[in-house]
Design a protein that fits this description.
The protein is of the alpha/beta class. Helices cover about 35% and strands about 10% of the residues.
């Protein structure tokens, strides 16, 4: 990796913190709302926004595109004026010819024609949180009255479609959705061209969800090999995770290659081709995807928004210094350096590198800690798809289309 590539980092901005108009059962960020007085103002002020936009643009290597990622909570709660101001500031501080893009993650329930028009005019990429068909989505994605949000989400999606906005699906894999993978996939493929599957894994002991909280976790604690008994009811099991992925892959590889793009499938193929993969979960190290809250506080990762992982504040310390400093560098390297021997000796090491550190709370058979909870599922997926992946990689290497796999006798 070249020096300039090493200096690239991304910041996910949460300009309204955890505020959301929904009350999804499995939300891992809603706990933040209970830490402040109800009258607390979660809105990012104009000065902080300008500092962020200016420093983020200036901190990226020359010639590299700058992608702003807006998330919450539900960022649409801030109103359109906030993001109009953000775009204005991007134009103010962007260099001539510099490519600046915006990604906006939303539950889509607040998206109307005005929002859709703005997204289209400013070329926003929209990530829509949707878990599948109505009966699956509404099981956990509810509002404060306990009502499902599916119909409102789909109305927002329709506005995005009408205005030709680029959008994709961010679908959580839970205990419910994992039981009916084809129903989930068939629905999503009918409405979305790009799909990202996100496994929901949460420990019953909330603080133990962050394995790097060394001072908060009892080092003498003994963990079971599977840890299934210590996860929440809505978490997907390792076995169901693997079955979910392989079942969908079998349909995709026969019918939808080149038509429907599933992030994990595409990035696994990229690894087989030895191409760079722009996803921290599947890379040797992490630490290049930071989080900023509405106050300007910077944290190491979206899943580690705890005091122990607060790097500083952009109003006090340059963003580049926080992102490239020794604390964050060490955080990123920990993913590899703390990898258990079972992972280092795994035949599929170079496809996942131990997965996301926040899920590394199981133990290997010999008691070696920090094995990824989802390891069994990942291994099942990689093994099941190896033949097809090798075939597609070979076709691409020879200048042929990967779509040939759909007619191959695998």
């Amino acid at each position: 990796m070249g020096k300039r590539e090493e200096n690239v980092f991304e910041v996910m901005a949460k300009p309204c913190g955890p505020l959301c108009n929904l009350d999804c059962v499995y939300c891992f960020y809603s706990y933040k709302k209970n830490r402040e007085d109800p009258s607390y103002n979660w809105t990012m002020d104009r000065e902080t926004l300008e500092i962020f936009v200016r420093d983020y643009i200036r901190s990226q290597p020359p010639g590299y595109p700058v992608q702003f990622v807006w998330q919450g909570g539900e960022p649409a709660l801030l109103g359109l004026n906030f993001f109009e101001e953000a775009v204005t500031l991007q134009r103010k501080y962007g260099a001539p010819g510099q490519r600046i893009t915006n990604a906006f993650q939303t539950n889509a329930t607040l998206i109307d024609e005005t929002w859709a028009s703005f997204f289209r005019e400013n070329k926003f990429l929209i990530g829509v949180s949707i878990d599948g068909p109505k009966e699956v989505h509404d099981h956990y994605r509810i509002d404060r009255q306990g009502k499902g949000s599916f119909d409102r989400v789909m109305k927002g999606v329709e506005h995005l479609r009408e205005y030709n906005v680029d959008y994709n699906a961010l679908a959580c894999i839970t205990d419910i959705s994992s039981k009916d993978p084809l129903s989930v996939y068939d629905f999503l493929r009918d409405h979305f061209e790009f799909i990202q599957f996100i496994p929901v894994v949460a420990k019953k002991d909330f603080m133990e969800r962050a394995p790097f909280l060394r001072d908060s976790i009892n080092p003498e604690a003994k963990h079971t090999a599977s840890h299934v008994d210590q996860t929440t009811d809505w978490s997907v099991t390792p076995q169901d995770f693997g079955t979910f992925l392989t079942t969908i892959f079998d349909k995709w590889v026969k019918h939808d290659v080149g038509k429907v793009f599933v992030q994990l499938f595409d990035y696994t193929l990229a690894h087989w081709l030895e191409y760079p993969v722009p996803l921290c979960v599947l890379n040797r190290t992490c630490g290049k995807a930071l989080v900023m809250e509405h106050t300007g506080d910077i944290f190491s990762c979206d899943h580690f928004v705890f005091p122990e992982f607060r790097l500083g504040n952009i109003r006090e310390t340059p963003l580049a210094d926080l992102a490239r400093g020794p604390v964050q560098t060490s955080f990123g390297r920990d993913k590899w350096e703390r990898l258990p021997g079972a992972c280092r000796n795994c035949e599929y090491l170079n496809l996942c590198f131990g997965g996301c550190p926040k899920n590394r709370f199981s133990s290997t058979a010999d008691g070696d800690g920090e094995l990824n909870y989802l390891c069994e599922g990942y291994r099942a997926f990689f093994k099941h798809t190896e033949k097809a992946m090798r075939f597609m990689a070979k076709e691409i290497t020879q200048g042929k289309p990967a779509t040939n796999v759909m007619n191959a006798p695998l």
